[in-house]
Amino acid sequence: MLVRLETVTASKLTASDNSNTLMVIDGHSMAYRAFFALPAENFQTATGQHTNAVYGFLSMLLAMIREQKPTHVAVAFDLETPTFRSEQYPEYKAGRDKTPEEFYGQIDLIKQVMDALQIPSIEVDGYEADDIVATMSTSAAEAGWDARIVSGDRDTFQLIKDNVTVLYPMRGVSELPPFDADAIVERYGVTPLQYPELAALVGESADNLPGVPGVGPGFAARWLKKYGSLKGILDNIDDIGGKKGEALRENLDQVKRNRELNALVTNLELPITLDEAILVNPDRNMVSELFDALEFDNIRNRVFTTFEQHLGSSEEPDPPEEMPETAVINDVEAWQTFLADIDQRISVFFHINPPATITRRKIPAPGDYGEIRALGLATADTTAVIDLDHASAALGSAVTHFLSDPQYSKVVYDLKATLKALATPPSRSVLEPLTDVNTSLVSVADDVLLSAYILQPDRRGYELADLVQTYLKTRLETVAPTENQGQLELEGFTDDNAEQLAQYARNAWMIHRLNEAMDEELQQREAVGLLHDLEIPLSVVLAKVELIGIGTDRQRLDSLLDGFTNEVEKAQESAFAAIGGQEVNLASPKQLQTVLFDTLDMPKTRKTKTGYSTDADSLADLLEKTDHPFLHNLMSYRDATKLRQTVQGLLDSIAEDNRIHTRFSQTAAATGRLSSLNPNLQNIPVRTPAGRQIRDIFVAGSNPYSDETTTLLTADYSQIEMRIMAHMSEDEGLIQAYRAGEDL
Q: Computed from CA positions of residues 318, 319, 325, 326, in that sequence, does the dihedral angle turn out positive or negative?
């Protein structure tokens, strides 16, 4: 709810309950920081609306709710109308950089998100968000509450008291350490009450408030420590000698004006009481509709989880269908009884333990596709679960036969990942290896992941929980495994992991319901054939391609790594020689700026937030203007470093079979284009001799699943967009041209 001032007295804020904690957020300040923390190009809806500030702000808010555990939350926003400060000093905040085009519209979206979360957004004509923050935090403190101020504006430091803390962002919006009185003293050498006086002396460039020339924070802090306050400094101004004392006397009016302007208003008339800022559960329907429009699929579940963990579950409408009771199948007899009642398609959830990872970036270990540890099963009438960790070999064999039996029509989630995990079970698994992906899991009627991709190809993610939220308007509960959680009963089965097993049955039930919902929409769009004739068969092919992988010449790769490493070192030494032997970090933009624009006095490139640009285009432009040998060697260093990183990445990706098993994402691009991951084999350079050397390391090798002679084949579409246009338009001229083999 967006609330703006009409006429409400400040006394309305009075409350008294020392168990309450208010968290008040400077909306504009934190939104702007969130905008620069996340790349705008990665957060854009199908309509072209950028959402990086919205996403970052929301992520920050959820983190603060989890960490600070507030009972009350409000967000303060600036208005575009003049404030009393700009009327008093027209140059106030003048000269600020133009707002980035991608930022436009995102403040309004953040307010809409707050409305859906039922968190009040507050604006007051003639005042800034800081003044709203000051009034609310001061009133909360006077009422005996704790207050947490979330702001990137250091003016709020003046509000710090015993029960008022400022959470100030140090890096983007991911790190907001608490600033109390001790932290201010340690960092700036002054108390919170003295901080605005220090700012008045030093000046605030962001607000276009110039300070005393030559007086920095350290010197201003020493004056304040000696004289106690700004008033004490002014009372003894004639005793302050030297150039700084002279500068202070010359700029006395300016300092006084700064102090008047940076004083925050703590007694505003606000349109809500503190009690009305109480944190409640979000409006689930509003959140779902808004997040669908914003394409916020991955964070939706996190919102509901955060609020419910903090506040407790909100009352939800009953699901349209009640989940049948779950039976645990732990022997062949129970399995045969379960199958005897199945006369329709059955939804199967494969619980796959994630593959082991290497490196800090959590890259899957080469050739590891995870372990299938349990199965959840569901039809319209029944649900069941099989704990494969405790199943007998006979039951494992029966389940293996079921998977490859065409008599049973199956609905799954993520067919490709399932086929790969089935093909390489761990040695302790009771499932029999199903290395032939064409027969290991047959009669797949639907993969709800692929169905969702067909229906919503522009989604950012297709996690099962997000699909459940989108299509079923409910939340998929998750149960984290716990140590020694005690024994729980599940349909006569006792096991430490009973809650997890029940969850796998719920997942299968949700897959069943998703299939019902999506199948109807696929039929309406006449897209059932696309799923059955193209996407599902392609998923099988891709699973086989990924399992087989591609052969590599490791010896040649090692040789290339040595060669590119030598080139990196050679280019680095030549670059140092070009600047008189000075050694700098060639990967550091800051050090390069010093060399290029100070030491070498080169023409300035475009200005960025961190100085003058040293990106590839800027360096190429400088090279054309100056032809300096340092630039030649710097660019050679960058090229060789990139090639070395590419080779090292390939080496790290080679599995024990000496092959690279890249992953092809079938759902990454709305156009249907496949995307190669871990490693990305699509970005290996080809137009340079070095790039072609890298490509030469891929060899036919031997087929691990066959003794047949292998051939390495390179294939690519020829003018695919034009061919699609010819097909869709049925243009006779284009069609005939392609039939004739003409090059268009």
A: negative
